[in-house]
RRM domain-containing protein (Chelydra serpentina), 100 residues
Amino acid sequence: MTSLAGVNLTGASSGGWCIFVYNLSPEADESVLWQLFGPFGAVTNVKVIRDFATNKCKGFGFVTMTNYEEAAMAIASLNGYRLGDRILQVSFKTSKQHKA
């Protein structure tokens, strides 16, 4: 695990850098994430989280990129990006810290 500004990042051990994408529309699918992140570098995996009952996007997803610098550039460029009528929130996926 790598630490950046006091935030624990789940990183290269899982085969890439996992990026959290929030505020996707209910109609969003994996192809949207491929198109958004592909120009920044090698994308190894995309996943839109769906509601089991409706099969609609729950509003978030994950993208895995192999290169840290490319992932950081994608985050810097796409955080705050307007996709349709929504403003995306994009960041490295952080590990949850349980409070004692």
